[in-house]
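I would love for you to help me understand the pair of lines that follows before we discuss the fold together.
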Amino acid sequence: MFKIHHIEDHIIDIAQSLNDKNVVIFNTYISRLQSTIRNIEEAELNLENIICQQRQVANEWVEFIYLESVPFQDIEKELLQFCMLNFK
């Protein structure tokens, strides 16, 4: 009878140990998942900011071209200067 109880206790200890390890693994997984979600959210915000900046640039060009009614050569000159400044 003693050996059976000893074996049962040993099995319970092993099960508890495995459970503790699973909790640690699960918590690590959750932490990594939360970190990944934060990184994705930051990337989305960065992308939205880039899109907004590009829209602003496009709007400025539309305003420059249509509202100023400048000759094509002036537009070409401004475009080249813009490209040189922004795309070195």
